[in-house]
Structures are given as structure tokens and as C-alpha cells.
Amino acid sequence: VLEKVTENCKLTEFVGTAIGNTIGLVIANVDSELHEKMGLDKKYRSIGIFGGRTGAGPQIMAADEAVKATNTEVVAIELPRDTEGGAGHGSLIIFGAEEVSDARRAVEVALKDLNRTMGDVYVNSAGHLEFQYTARASYAIQKAFNAPVGQAFGLLVGAPAAIGVLLCDTAVKAAEIEVISYLSPSTTSHTNESILAFSGDSGAVRQALIAAREVGLQLLSALGGPCKSLTQPYI
Amino acid sequence: VLEKVTENCKLTEFVGTAIGNTIGLVIANVDSELHEKMGLDKKYRSIGIFGGRTGAGPQIMAADEAVKATNTEVVAIELPRDTEGGAGHGSLIIFGAEEVSDARRAVEVALKDLNRTMGDVYVNSAGHLEFQYTARASYAIQKAFNAPVGQAFGLLVGAPAAIGVLLCDTAVKAAEIEVISYLSPSTTSHTNESILAFSGDSGAVRQALIAAREVGLQLLSALGGPCKSLTQPYI
Amino acid sequence: VLEKVTENCKLTEFVGTAIGNTIGLVIANVDSELHEKMGLDKKYRSIGIFGGRTGAGPQIMAADEAVKATNTEVVAIELPRDTEGGAGHGSLIIFGAEEVSDARRAVEVALKDLNRTMGDVYVNSAGHLEFQYTARASYAIQKAFNAPVGQAFGLLVGAPAAIGVLLCDTAVKAAEIEVISYLSPSTTSHTNESILAFSGDSGAVRQALIAAREVGLQLLSALGGPCKSLTQPYI
User: Fold this and answer.
1) Does residue B184 sit at the A interface (CB-CB below 8 Å)?
2) What is this structure's pTM?
3) Within 10 Å of residue A214's Cβ, how many Cβ atoms?
4) Does A27 touch chain B if contact means CB atoms closer than 8 Å?
5) Which partners does chain A have (≥3 C-beta pairs < 8 Å)?
6) What is the distance in angstroms between the Cα of C59 and the nearest Cα belonging to chain A?
7) pLDDT of A87-111, one tens digit each?
8) Which pLDDT tens digit goes with each residue over A155-180?
9) ∠A10-A58-C14 over CA atoms, to 5°?
10) C162 to B79: CB separation less than 8 angstroms, yes or no
11) d(CA A126, CA C11)
């Protein structure tokens, strides 16, 4: 799972690829019948398409940065059960824009930022851990997790789900955070994950994540041996 | 994923195997309690069972040919999330028949036709593409996709789903087709696919498929390198 | 997929690991907000956590033995779509206890028993078969399958689901059993399995399982070559 820079696709709709078998595309003017079948907001004829086989959290966090940086909106987030045989999700995120140049820019920002947001994803043969942090959530995170815009936001994922349960408990005990949602296999796309989404003071959010990460790395290592960051930790 | 000809199973219920870890079986007289629990139509005591780990579209198309060629009905189509770690579905298709010989014949036809219907399935490590065409849809396709019987039918699948979205747009712009349904991860069995089912004039259906295939092969190659047909393209 | 004895995790919450990337943990005093979000019964502040990547039936059967042997209750069973790229489920099982020592003991019993309950799980590259038997079902089996407590219970699983359908028919024809439930891809977590849960006289339950096992091994071998027990058969 390495970053790929693909320059050899000549389609005008192609933007690029990134870690996690993630691809970025644009459509300048979505066919009106398809537009309706997709249930998109009518005000956006241009869309950016951003999705991968491995990872939902990393793509959502990267899309959140893209939304902050561009004149676009996240109009759809869908979470397949995937991770290429692993325990988690894949992702399909659609940006809506009035101009295709805005959609393209959003996809470019998201593709580029994905290397960062994969940094606190830790993997071994037994499962994975994921930790995400932002000092200021924007509209992609709000859409995905119903998190308050403008506040610090944290996300933790533990797979298999048994590990995730303990990480959730660790996080809420480590700092004064506000739990937005607890997700488990019956409330995800049948992933083998337990997930906590939370907001709060930025220091508290970080503290909760760091405490959970410390516990998670011990547990996942005990189950499946050394586990390492997919890129470079950022939290 | 190669075709296997297995002659070494002596069970009378065994019919054969085919590509995609697909197996074909018959039951001459389904136990009445199980029959009821399975929710099958009471008029059929004999069933044919046809399903695989990889592929739903190919098995549905092959079952459609089997229904055309035999005195059977497709009474159930179920779509697990599978593809053996890939991005798509598996399949479980049940033929109902009054005579077990009819059920067996349907399964034989479907097993044999599967090699053809896997022909426009293209795979690499990043995902898969699938294109299916028939000049005249029958009752299996109607049951699976609510397609009009007797008309030309096209199916396209792109995985990861981000690629599929663009293929759907390409197809509807390439020819005058009638979209039956657009499916995405939230409306499939959580696969990482976007799917378009459509009907129309046979020339238009083929044109839409060929246009989407051309785009799909470029995109999937850009993401994961060369991708090739599982058998021999037929469209 | 071998049993792992991991003694190197120093967390007090860690109990151990077992076959199928299964882990066992305890929380002495679940955070009250998380407790509520998890929907747990308020009378249990201590929980045992027991879950794996591969296997739901084996973990449920092992949990049933744990419940019989300890002062605990199974308060949640969730079934992700998993098996690490295979055709079946993973598992997340929560024991509730008034004392953490009880929760720990339940997890220990379950981890230890898992080697036995993986014994009639047979795997090859094409799929898997699973057979489970107990002379006396307890509350974990009741919660998972709505089976009558105190009676003999049998469970059979065939994957791909096409094989499972025939095994279900074989079992109900082989002995006088009472079918509790028939599950297929549309009623599981989108697994590629057909599943039969049944009760009855202990001799009949065993007879049904043995008949289905004999057929299943022939079919799965015909599809994917030799398939073998993950540990040692116990039925």
C-alpha cells in the first residue's frame, strides 16, 4: 500500500491516485438522469469523485481538508465493506461544485492530504487501528459523523472489534471528551471494527487519542505481531 | 481463477463446478420444512442450486440463458458480499423445477455458460470491471434487475465504486439507453462497486457498454496496473 | 491460523488470544457514557470482551461453555462480515458480570474452549464448512439462535452458500430434528453461507450433523481440493 503517482492516464476526468487503492476523478456535467438516480443536489452539475478500497476515515478526513480549501460541498459519503480482505471499510465520497475546476481542486487536495491522514493507521495481519484528529472539523466530518463544525474532532477505530471496545473505553476515561457516536459491527457496514467519534477541547481530544493509541498498539501487537504506520504518524 | 472440471464427486446431487469457485447442485425433492423456511414457491419440489464465491453478474447472466433453454424458473437470487477478498459480490441462485432432470439441465447450462459471461470481467489487484450484454433478457435478469423481458439488456460494474460512477456517466452519455437502476455501496450488499443496469435498442446497449469498457480499462489500469479478462471478451 | 499463547501484553485488561485472530479482554468498570452508548444492561459494570476475525459459531459455542461455567451473562453478540477474505463472519461477544473476576474467568474459559469448537471447521481455498454440537445449549446459544436452553443443539454452516443449501437438506432428512432457523446471504451479515440451527434429541442432532459433514466434505473438496479441520474434530 504505497502512494502511486500515475501520470499515464489521458482521460480528462482523471485526477490522480493515492494510497489505499484510492482514485480521484471529476465529471464536468453529470448526465441528468444519472444525477437524479444518484440523488445528488440539483444545484451541482459538476462532481468530484474520491474513493478507495482501503480506508474510510482517512478519505473522510482528507475530504474535510478539501472542503475547507475549496468552493465545494461533500454531497455523498458511502462506506462499502472492504479493505481488500481486511476488517474495515472502503469509501466513496462525492464533492459537488458549480465549476468543474473547483471539483478538480477538491479532489487534488484530498488525494494529496491522504498520505497524512493514513499516518495514524496501523496494520498487521490480525487487524488495524486508526486515529484521526483535527483542531477544527468542517462539513465532510459533519456529514459523516454528525460532528459539530468548527470544533476539535477525534476518531478512533480498532479492528478486530474486540480491541476497539477497549480503545473506546480508554479514550473516554483519558480526557473530558464528548462522545458523538459509538459504532460496532451491527451499526457499520458489517465491518469488524469498534469506532468512537468525539469532539471537545482540542487538548482533550488529542489526549484521548494518544491514550487509546498507546493501548491499541499493545493489543494489536499481542494478537498479530508488530504493527506499523502506513505512512508517518501525525497526531 | 480457472475453470475446473471436477468429475470425482460421486454424490447424485452434484452437477459440476466452474470458474469463480462456482458450484452447481440439484435436490430432487427438497425437505418440506426446509422448503418452507427457504420461502420457495410450493409448486417446485425440485431445485437447482448455482452459486459462486466470485461474481454475481456472470452467474445471473448464465442463469438467464439456462432459464431460456429449460423448463425452469429462477426462484431466488441472493447476493453475498464476497469475491474472496475482492470488491464485489458472490452469488446464490436457485432454480425451481417440477422435474429434477429439468433442474439439472438448467444448472448444466448455467455452469457451461459461465465461462462466456466471465469474459468481460477484468481484474487487477486494485479492483474489477464487469460488462454484460444480452440481446434478449429473460426471467433471471428480470428477477435480479427488474429489467423488461425480451429486450436488450446491459450491465456495467466498476470497482472501486469511484471508478464505477464515471463508467455509469460514460454509458448514459454514449447512447440512448434507458437506465433501470443505479446501485452503489449503500444499495448493494456493501460492495465497493457502482453498477448500472439498463435496457434499450440492442445497438445502443452495446455502444454504451463498449464506451464504458474503454474508459474503465484506462482507469483501472491507472490505479492498479494491467487488467485482463478472466476468460475471453464476448461483447 | 494456529493457536497463539501470548504472554507479553502487560495491560491489566488483556486476558489472552486464541485461534482465528481471537482476543479476550476485560473492563472492570465500563465508562458510564460508553456503557449507555453500547446499550448494555445497567446491572453489569464489568464486561468481558471476546471476539475474532475468523469464526462466529466457534466463538458462540465457546461462550456458551463460559456462561455455563461462570457467573456471567452474554449481553451482546455482533457478527461482522469477515473471515479475513473468506466467506463468513467474525465475532464480537460481550459478557456482563457483577465482578471483573467473573468476566475474566468467562473470557479465559471461552479462549481455552475455542480450540475445541474450531475442530469441526473445515477450510480450503474455495470455502469452509462448520459443524457444532452441544448436548445442552445454554444462554449464549439461546441469545444467538433463539435455541431452547437445556436441549441438544446443532449448527451447520456451508460456504459458498450453494453448498450450504444442500447440507441443510441433508441434515433435516438424516434425522428427526427441529429446525430453529435457516439463514442465507440475505439474512446473515451478507456472508456467502447457508446455515441451519436446530435442536432435538441429542442422538438425532449428532446424526444430522454427521450426515451433513460427510456430504459437505465431498462437495467442498470437489470445488477446492482437500479441506481439513482447523484443529481436531470433536463431533
Assistant:
1) yes
2) 0.96
3) 13
4) yes
5) B, C
6) 12
7) 999 999 999 999 999 999 999 999 9
8) 999 999 999 999 999 999 999 999 99
9) 145
10) no
11) 18
